Amino acid sequence: MNAATDADFKRRKYMPIFPKATGKPTVYIEGYPSEDDEPMSATGFHGEQITTLSSQFKVYFEADSLVYVGFDSFVYYQEGDITKFVAPDIHVVFGVSPFPQRRSFYTWAEGAVPAVVFEFLSDSTAAQDRGRKVRQYLIDIGVQEYFIHQPEGDKPPEFRGWRRSASGEIEGIAPDAEEGLFSHALNMQLRWEDQPNHVRLLRPYLPDGTPLPTPLEEKQAREQAQAFAQEEAQRRQQAEAAAHRAEVLAQEESQRRRQAEAVAQEEAQRRRDLESELEQLRAELAALRGDGPR
Question: What are the two backbone dihedrals, phi and then psi, of residue 194, each rounded to the nearest 5 degrees?
């Protein structure tokens, strides 16, 4: 089983099961703003974290045609009220098509709400992310799981999560021994790791411990695979060239052997001819001397 086949097998094995949404993809509804004056990401740390994690989810879920991954965009959750919206850093919605791209996500039009939401802490929003947004996401909107993470490596680590219990209550997600949290909605383990560029990167892992590669790791893996394929092709060409040379040498050796055999046969024939001629001369000489029969 090669790497691509193994990845496809694991996707099928660990992909969450969910129903198709009851609505339809909606690009834009008139009267609902799709942007504000806020920057898309608070800092470069947030930008790298958002870009990396959303790309990982998009690549992983691309095999399924009913998973939408949104980032830095509005989610409206009450029809007719343009004040009822959130703008999570990343949200994952199951049961809806990833295409076409939306300017905003309208829960009543799509017939679905985000299953998982991620917010990455910044100085201006951290209090809201830790406080009122927990209830807003889990109770008001109906999100299954909500996670917050501090992506700035120079600040103290903070990675927390909440989910709705079976009774509809909010409960904290208990960390494991490595300070990771398990997302039942995504069927993934989430852990952070410090990067050399001071980004504290939140990373998803499959239940068997396989990490979802980052875009950079995907690029490096493709380059390594291409380099390996080129090396294999070069080795195959060299092997074919060596086999061709060996075949040519074998043919030349066979031809030399046939030529030598032909020369040997000619030499043997000449020797027989000479012996026959010599025997005839001896007989003629004996007849001249009278040595022959009378």
Answer: -80, 135
CATH value at residue 152: 3.90.1570.10
Map 228-281 to HEC letters: HHHHHHHHHHHHHHHHHHHHHHHHHHHHHHHHHHHHHHHHHHHHHHHHHHHHHH
Confidence class for position 55, pLDDT limits 50, 70, 90: very high
Residue 68 sits in the same domain as residue 163: yes
Say if residue 204 is in the same domain as residue 237: no
Given a cut of 90, whether residue 189 has pLDDT beyond it is yes
Count up the domains in the chain and report the number: 2
> For residue 64, what pLDDT is reported?
80
Does 57 lie in the same domain as 166? yes
Q: Return the sign of the alpha-carbon dihedral for residues 23, 8, 147, 185.
A: positive
pLDDT at residue number 292: 54
The average confidence (pLDDT) of the chain is 92
Contact 28, 188 (CB under 8 A): no
Q: Is the CB of residue 172 less than 8 Å from the CB of residue 164?
A: no
Q: Same domain, yes or no, for 228 and 199? A: no
Domain span at residue 279? 214-294
Q: What's the full length of the chain, in residues?
A: 294
Residues 6+ apart with CB under 8 A from 136: 86
Structure letter (DSSP) for residue 136: I
* Cα dihedral sign, 39-119-35-216: positive
The fraction of the chain above a pLDDT of 90, given in percent, is: 73
Asked if 122 and 159 sit in the same domain, the reply is: yes
Domain boundary among 195, 212, 229: 212
- What torsion, rounded to 10 degrees, do the Cα atoms 257, 261, 264, 268 define? 170
